[in-house]
Design goal:
Strand order of the largest sheet of chain B: 1-3-2-4-6-5-10-11-9-7-8
Radius of gyration of chain A: 30 Å
Radius of gyration of chain B: 21 Å
Number of strands of chain A: 16
Number of helices of chain A: 16
Largest interface: A-B, 30 and 43 residues
Helix content of chain A: 25-40%
GO molecular function (chain B): ATP binding; glutaminyl-tRNA synthase (glutamine-hydrolyzing) activity; transferase activity
Catalytic activity (chain B): L-glutamyl-tRNA(Gln) + L-glutamine + ATP + H2O = L-glutaminyl-tRNA(Gln) + L-glutamate + ADP + phosphate + H(+)
EC number (chain B): 6.3.5.7
Number of strands of chain B: 11
Keywords (chain B): ATP-binding, Ligase, Nucleotide-binding, Protein biosynthesis, Transferase
Oligomer: heterodimer
Organism (chain B): Cognatiyoonia sediminum
């Protein structure tokens, strides 16, 4: 296995009126835990059910109802922590975060402020240009999601859907190690990739199963290095938190526009006020969410309905032993074992299913050739076919492997292979059999090709003379031979014969 | 049989098993008493039709010969317990008309064992109070009287205590967060036990202070308490704080033999200004235990004086959060709103109208002690004090003490409307809150009468999970004290 080592990317710099400014970004990513039941109730987590149909009494905050921890959610949090190379806390505890809102029936969210289940970890965030940022994870804690308030269905009433209430979230808190909008999006993408590998979060951002609160501040060049040396936040600017972002594109746009807003404020002699803000993609601006007098005091305290959460090291080790190969390891293995480029390895390991497909194709075959076919032909064809995913591919790894084997053995040319691929894609079937049945085999019989070539030379003396003067025109003869053989002549042999016959 | 309502639970059980009476007959007799008890205001919701059906079913089980101890026994249920399809309001206006779709674990266990529900019993609103005067249904009147003066039955389980004392049920469920079973039991001359925290499931009981709340039986004597407690106990996977321990046969523990047991007498419970009557009651009780063969040991529980303030930080803190769910959104009372009112106005008006003054006071205190800047000074400090109080008890138990004897209350029942100062009211819990803070079992039994003829109670505090031993010491004390007085029926 290769060690993945990269240079750090340069921080994003924005030129202000008075000086250059750098960005400092930290993210709180909320990832819905992939489990059947909610964090503290047996109600289903299925998306898209009728409003208020997936609600247990405890989710609705009914009097006397009590939470009971779902072990599956704890296991998924531990799995995620292990996937992020983080410290697992064998002793953690749940706290109540108190605030009033109609979609929060208990009047408090059960979360983990004081003793989170996962401690410090780190994530390698590749930028795709040969650089990568190592982002430190501060903690991951488990908490309940809130329900949904709907204010636009009726002019006088608000509605509440509690289906989501109590669904388990992992809040993944990063250190302020992210230095630009693209890095922030890439970081979320990397978390998403790792969690999808682990099966701990489906990463569906459209459904809100993965969303981020983005903390943005700006500082002058050099200040961030002072923070790094001292871990003293006073070297950094005042941050604002942009809430609830569930699109990679909007995350980048929001960071950019928020940074520019802060720079304009500071350069105008005003101060940045620490607050939570919302991003409006229609106007491409961020807006303050609440005024100071409404600032929340969440009155966190240990939830007395729940005992401290104690897990055993042996259990953690069992989970660790069951982890799949993760993206970084897989990528470096693909580079080492199959000789793939960083880029190809990244593309193939983006999703675990893609990587598994590629491995099946490449098994015992030419890895680079397999990578080219998977990335260029198969992915390209799937994209044209209604943006299908690999799991919906009509061409199985076996079939594609068969095509590659036929190329490698010289039975078919690359050009014929593309036709064959299309046949397999649309009609199915065993590639070798199709080649046999439809006579697509490459002609490697020198005699047959020679006969064809001789006929062409005899019929086109003028072309022969031209080609002798300008060897580039030899390609015309290649085309003619191909035409005469129905494209099945082995191009290498054709070339060789032409060179000889024309004395080039 | 005559005077069916004078029988204890054990006597009723035995009489039914022998065929001397039936649950239908007993339930009928109690139903009459319940219907004629309006002046006491102990019942807030009668379920006599349900009771009649349950009695019938119980009689069939008894006839079949496989009836559990509680089968056919008519009970009163504190309004804090959620009972399926039956109004359960925690005596609060904010739960106006609330009928749960579920049955609390405790009442499920009792009804599964064949017990009969006569109705829901009055209490202090959300179990916050020591006089049953904070109920939305109005105060309960103690069946005991002095010179025609209406007295409090104590609180918060005032309805339960009054109902048992006045023979309006064989026994009742109570809950105890700071003394809410033991203080009213002492004020009404009955027996009440708060088991070890985690012994009885809290599922389906409206929460006041989750780390302190425990349900327990309120009964005519110690044997009844043993029988009913056993039926209420047991591990409940629906309550994370419920202990996964086997439930012993508590009645079998009642041998009356306490020879060689060590009883601790804590010096810190001898408060300044303690009345001579209470002091005499305590020393009489000590002598009785000594005569029964126990060894008496003077002990110290040095952090006792901090218990009451710590309790009145922790309990309101938890309550302020537990009661946040009463917001008018999903159930219970919702205030009528004016044009232009938004969600904030809905919360404010609903909660101002739905909660009584004492509940509002505690919600505000609890909110304050948890708020930024005050958390460490109040809540966190109270938690530390709590840990020290627990250690005090652990030390004396480790030193060989089997049970601790204290007065149950600083006085006998006081007059309704007399104790309007909240701090004075909170002082009622001075002997009982330590037990909740330490999570220990505690029992109050009647041990004598004061000069005006009102019952006085003693409290015994036991080792965690040793309710059997504790009940046996109480049983021995009960036999020695020989308390048989009953209130004159005036209602």
């Amino acid at each position: 296995m290769l060690d993945l080592t990269y240079d750090a990317p340069a921080p994003k710099t924005i030129a202000g009126a008075t000086s250059d400014w750098e960005l400092v970004i930290g993210l709180e990513v909320h990832a819905q835990v992939a489990t059947k039941a909610k964090l503290f109730s047996g109600a289903s987590t299925l998306f898209g059910a009728e409003p208020n149909s997936n609600v247990a009494f405890v989710d609705a905050g009914m009097p006397g109802m009590l939470p009971v921890i779902n072990e599956g959610c704890v296991e998924q949090a531990v799995r995620t922590g292990l996937g992020l190379k983080a410290e697992i806390n064998l002793n953690s505890a749940f706290d109540r975060k108190n605030y009033f809102y109609p979609d929060l029936p208990q009047g408090y969210q059960i979360s983990q402020l004081y003793h989170p289940i996962v401690g410090e970890g780190e994530v390698l965030v590749e930028m795709g240009d040969g650089t990568a940022r190592v982002v430190r994870i501060e903690r991951i804690h488990l908490e309940q999601d809130a329900g949904k308030s709907i204010h636009d269905m009726d002019p006088h009433m608000s509605f509440v859907d509690l289906n989501r209430t109590g669904v388990a979230l992992m809040e993944i808190v990063s250190r302020p190690d992210i230095r630009g909008p693209e890095e922030a999006a890439a970081y979320v993408g990397k978390l998403r990739q790792i969690m999808r590998y682990l099966g701990t979060c489906d990463g569906n951002m459209q459904n809100g199963n993965l969303r981020a609160d983005v903390n943005v501040s700006v500082c002058k060049p050099g200040d961030y290095e002072k923070y790094q040396e001292t871990q003293d936040f006073s070297h950094l600017g005042t941050r604002c938190e942009i809430k609830n972002m569930n699109s990679m594109r909007f995350i980048q746009m929001a960071i950019e526009v928020e940074a520019r807003r802060q720079i304009a404020l500071i350069e105008d002699g005003q101060e940045v006020v620490q607050e939570t803000r919302l991003y409006d993609p229609d106007k491409n601006e961020t807006r303050s969410m609440r005024s100071k007098e409404e600032a929340h005091d969440y009155r966190y305290f240990p939830d007395p309905d729940l005992l401290p959460l104690e897990i055993e090291q042996a259990w953690v080790e069992d989970i660790a032993a069951s982890l799949p190969e993760l993206p970084d390891a897989k990528k470096s293995r693909f580079m080492a074992d199959f000789g793939l480029s960083d880029y190809d390895a990244s593309v193939l390991t983006a999703e675990a299913e893609n990587a598994a497909y590629f491995e099946a194709v490449a098994e015992g075959r030419d890895g680079k050739l397999a990578a080219n076919w998977v990335i260029n032909e198969l992915f390209g064809r799937l994209k044209k076919d209604d943006d299908k995913g690999i799991t919906d591919s009509p061409v199985t790894a076996d079939q594609l492997g068969g095509i590659i084997a036929l190329i490698k053995s010289g039975d078919i040319s690359g050009k014929i292979a593309k036709d064959l691929f299309e046949i397999v894609y649309t009609e199915g079937g065993d590639p070798a059999q199709i080649v046999e049945e439809r006579g697509m085999k490459q002609v490697t019989d020198t005699g047959a090709i020679e006969t064809a070539l001789d006929e062409i030379i005899a019929a086109n003396p003028a072309q022969v003379e031209k080609a002798k003067v300008n060897p580039k025109l030899a390609g015309w003869f290649v085309g003619q031979v191909m035409k005469a053989t129905g494209g099945k002549a082995n191009p290498a042999i054709v070339n060789q014969l032409i060179q000889g016959k024309l004395g080039l | 049989m005559s005077d069916l309502t004078k029988l204890t639970l054990a006597q009723t059980r035995d009489a039914m098993r022998k065929g001397d009476t039936s649950s239908a007959e007993v339930t009928g007799a109690y139903s009459k008493e319940v219907e004629a008890s309006g002046a006491l205001n102990a019942y807030v919701e009668g379920t006599l039709n349900i009771a009649a059906d349950q009695a019938k079913a119980a009689d069939q089980r008894i006839a079949e010969g496989d009836a559990p101890d509680m089968c056919g026994i008519p009970l009163g249920i504190k309004d804090l317990f959620c009972t399926k399809g039956v109004k359960s309001q925690a005596a609060s206006g904010i739960l106006d008309g609330f009928k749960p779709e579920y049955e609390s674990t405790v009442t499920s266990k009792l009804f599964d064992a064949g017990a009969v529900m006569l109705g829901k019993l009055n209490m202090d609103e959300f179990a916050m109070g020591s006089s049953n005067e904070t109920s939305v249904y109005g105060n309960v009147v103690n069946p005991w009287k002095v010179d025609d003066r209406d007295l409090t039955p104590g609180g918060s389980s005032g309805g339960s205590a009054a109902a048992v004392a006045a023979d309006l049920c064989v026994a009742a469920t109570g809950t105890d967060t700071g003394g809410s079973i033991r203080q009213p039991a002492a004020f009404t001359g009955i027996t009440g036990i708060k088991p070890t925290y985690g012994r009885v499931s809290r599922w389906g009981i409206v929460a006041f202070a989750s780390s302190l709340d425990q349900a327990g039986p309120m009964t005519k004597d110690v044997r009844d308490a043993a029988i009913m407690l056993e039926a209420m106990c047991g591990h409940d996977p629906k309550d994370s704080t419920s202990a996964d321990l086997p439930v012993p046969n508590f009645e079998a523990a009642l041998t009356g033999d306490i020879k060689g047991k060590t009883i601790g007498i804590p010096k810190e419970y001898r408060m300044d200004g303690m009345s001579a009557e209470i002091e005499k009651l305590w020393s009489d009780g000590t002598e009785m235990l000594k005569d029964a063969g126990a060894e008496i040991k003077d002990i110290s529980l040095p952090h006792t004086k901090y218990a009451l303030p710590a309790y009145y930080v922790i309990a309101p803190a938890e309550a302020s959060s537990n009661l946040a769910r009463y917001d008018g959104v999903r159930f219970g009372h919702r205030a009528k709103l004016d044009a232009g009112d938004g969600i904030t106005e809905m919360y404010e008006k609903t909660r101002a109208e739905g909660f009584g003054a004492e509940v509002q006071r505690r919600v505000m205190v609890g909110t304050y002690v948890l708020s930024a800047g005050f958390y460490d000074a109040y809540y966190n400090r109270a938690r530390k004090v709590r840990a020290l109080i627990k250690q005090d008890f652990e030390k004396v138990f480790a030193d060989g003490v089997d049970a601790i004897l204290t007065p149950a209350t600083p006085s006998a029942a006081f007059g309704l409307g007399e104790n309007m100062d909240p701090i004075q009211m909170y002082l009622n819990d001075v002997f009982t809150v330590t037990v909740n803070l330490a999570g220990l079992p505690g029992i109050a039994i009647p041990a004598g009468l004061d000069a005006s003829g009102l019952p006085l109670g003693l409290q015994l505090i036991g080792r965690p999970w040793e309710e059997g031993d504790l009940l046996n010491v109480a049983y021995s004390l009960e036999r020695a004290a020989g308390f048989v007085a009953k209130p004159d029926k005036w209602w």
